[in-house]
Amino acid sequence: MLLRLMTLCLALLLPSLASAQTLDELVGQLPDGNYNDRAALVTRIAATGDPRAASVLDALLEGELEQRTADGRIVRVTGSRNNETAVDVLTGEELGTVARRSTESIRVNNSLRRQIRTALGVLTLRDPDPARRLAAAEAALRSPDADQLDPLTEALEAEQNSTIRTALERARAATLLGTDAPIDARLAAIITLADAPAMTVQSALNAHRADADPQIAAAVAAAIAAAERRQAVWSQAQNLWFGLSLGSVLLLAAIGLAITFGVMGVINLAHGELVMLGAYTTYAVQQVFRAYAPDMLGWSLAVAVPVAFLLVGAVGVAIERGIVRHLYGRPLETLLATWGVSLILQQLVRTLFGPTNREVGTPDWMSGAFQLGEMTVTWSRVSIVVFALFVFFGLLLLMRYSAFGLQMRAVTQNRPMAANLGIRTGYVDALTFGLGAGIAGLAGVALSQIDNVSPNLGQSYIIDSFLVVVFGGVGNLWGTFAAALSLGIANKFLEPWAGAVLGKILILIFIILFIQKRPRGLFPQRGRAAEG
Amino acid sequence: MKKLLLSTALCASFATGAFAQEGEPIRVGILHSLSGTMAISETTLRDAMLMLIEQQNEAGGLLGRPLEAVVVDPASDWPRFAELARELIAGDGVAAVFGCWTSVSRKSVLPVFEELNSILFYPVQYEGQESQRNVFYTGAAPNQQAIPAVDYLLAEGVERFYLAGTDYVYPRTTNQILEAYLLAQGVAQEDIIVNYTPFGHSDWQTIVAEIAAFGSTGRQAAVVSTINGDANVPFYNELAAQGISAEDIPVIAFSVGEEELAGIDTAPLVGHLAAWNYFMSVDTPENDAFIDAWHTYIGSDERVTNDPMEAHYIGFNMWVDAVEAAGTTDADAVIDALVGVAVPNLTGGLSSMGANHHITKPVLIGEIQDDGQFEVVWETSGLVLGDEWSDFLPESAPLISDWRAPLSCGNFNVETGTCGGSE
Known about the structure:
Chain A has helices spanning about 1-20, 25-30, 35-45, 55-60, 110-125, 130-140, 150-160, 160-175, 185-195, 200-205, 215-265, 270-290, 300-320, 330-355, 380-400, 405-415, 415-420, 425-445, 460-470, 475-515, 530, and strands spanning about 65-70, 75-80, 85-90, 95-100, 105, 370, 375-380. By secondary structure, chain A is an alpha+beta fold. Chain A has a domain at about 235-530. In chain A, strand 3 (about 85-90) and strand 4 (about 95-100) form a beta hairpin. The radius of gyration of chain A is 32 Å and the shape is globular. Chain A starts with a helix and ends with a helix. By secondary structure, chain B is of the alpha/beta class. Chain B folds into 2 domains: about 20-140 and about 285-360, 3-Layer(aba) Sandwich (Rossmann fold), CATH 3.40.50.2300; about 145-280 and about 365-385, Rossmann fold, CATH 3.40.50. A 7-stranded mixed β-sheet of chain B has the order 7-6-8-9-10-14-15, covered by helices on one side. In chain B, strands 2-1-3-4-5 form a 5-stranded parallel β-sheet, sandwiched between helices. Chain B is globular, with a radius of gyration of 22 Å.
């Protein structure tokens, strides 16, 4: 009897003995050993059930956990490089600022971070913040572990939010699949998972392809095959979207050139640098915002658009009045002169802003992505497509319905006649060039969101811009539109099987052949304007 | 007696200090692009060299003579590098040249240095497969960067590798070596994808989507990036935009340092990796002193330091030591004296010049932090000597380089016992 009582006692005691190590002791061991030792500690910290465990793991995940060399205390260090303050991670006691090299950071790497997230996931499945619950469910899906099953089931019962419910169901299914649950439950789990996005299906099911049970293996193979079929269809849609978004970038870059080169016939090799100036204007506007109104940073792009248009437009007018107007009718000299201008602008920016890239922030409403079927659509690309269409149609309306547009068309079609009718042709020339330059500046604002803001920015777009304008038909805005989008789409359909390098070469060869056949491009100018 | 000693010492220091500027200056060439596409990376190196030379002059110059920097601008134009190298050596009579960034610029100046017998210090990581008598390679060879990097990934449980690079000689050779190495480590051929993009590639949508699909098979995948220069910013932006985090698919880069990160918001990139031999965040007194001096010199404490700057720091100090040991700036004497010279690097060790004209360095793997700095997550236990001829490519496996007498050969074939490569 006594013996039985003792064994019972022992049995009761043992688990508590094993986990008897308190959070304090476990945290004290964190600095020792390698990443694997730390990973084991993370699991045990999560298992203590201590309410402080989540904040300790959080600090570790953020890389803010450090050990004081003087007394070995584990502290959470926050703040910038030269102004760091420490808080005792267990007691919450404020320890003031820390001197350089007085603490040793507890290193985390990617695989450890994954484990912390999984461990944290179990702790935060019932968190009041829905974003954290969703993150926890996704972490559980990414690394299924049999221990998670019960917390997942409980969380699922309590969950109200349908998005999180779906995520939890999938996480539970992925976990269940890895256990020795009855075959019906596992088959049901495969069916639950089969509806998920194809990439999730593959990452969750691939490991079970060779399951011991032939029924499971067959169901897994079928689910993966279905996912792959779905993905194949969607990848065509994805190529189309990528092509549209590349096309709209090309359109933005080329549309200003369609005015200066297309309408006026000026071979403007400084066009790329005007785009670059637009990008730097965006940077400068953001710097002003950062200095004077940091909370309004999201609006900086909206302000940068008119500023870039006016500023770069003014530079364009200056180039036209200063150089280009003396060289009308002499294309070779214009080419050399504008190339010289491009070099001057590049080096000017390099001297003013330095040779290194400048960081242009992306406003919150433009960052991130959403899932559309099997493809990821990023907000920055959507914004650029919309912006490009807006600029294009705005320009079209201006050309067709404004007095300035009418004068511009009149001057380019028949200069002497327009002059006789009292149009100040020189004035119109300057404004037209300024308009083209201003639109290049708008392109710069958009490109600052996806490319480097460096003095070299323009060079990478100048060739593409000329290609688009020539391919579309010089002097035809709709031609530029069609050319930009079709080149973008062709490029993106070629890239998956030809590679980026060969794809680019193929497009170039195609355009050369096309121009041989139709020298005036896709939509040639007809009538009197074409002879002018 | 003690007083006498002291005054002699004072006299001596007075002599070097005061009369340092007396002698004919020793000229040092700086051959870095200050305009054109490479200016983004190379301008900083010019500034770093000017700072090192200024420091050396403040410390009394070299051999009692002041140093004088001769700066030229090859404008990212490869043939111009060769012309200006000739001008520096033959025209200005420089004792040594510190310069070049791209491999093609180095290749274009090699014949000039050979013909006019001068010394070039090359500070950038490169593809190896070269050892030249007049060149001292202070950047990393593949075994000091690429191989340890994939070793780290393999240890982290990565099973699938996407090798993405810009289409030119450094990524192509490095990826060739890496592919051979990975296959030898038991990675299956279908788990390795190699992809090249043109210079300045800015539309990464397709490739990033491909990487996302490559990494969603349930087995850990990683990207090994030899993407060069400006193409990196749109690449990382696209990764961040499509929501690929370092925990899903880490990217380890060989050409992305503090300077390149200066143009990006690094918050979404935390955890992506880079392999270098130096990081600005390395916590040593030498590094603190170097960073402070740099900030004072450049007049801004926003500016970062990076790996090629450290390479110049090591190379310059090695050259100074070798000139002092040889007692002359004569190229032949200095080339002989350089082998075996050891100077402190900025990561707390002593780097030494090997007989193959490559140096020993630690290899560090760093993770990107949200402040644009790297945090070291792994490092080699000791220093690694650069291996000029890769052991993983069949054509270079039997080659060694030893510029000491009596061998004095940069491509000695140990199988045939002849100097002259594998042909």
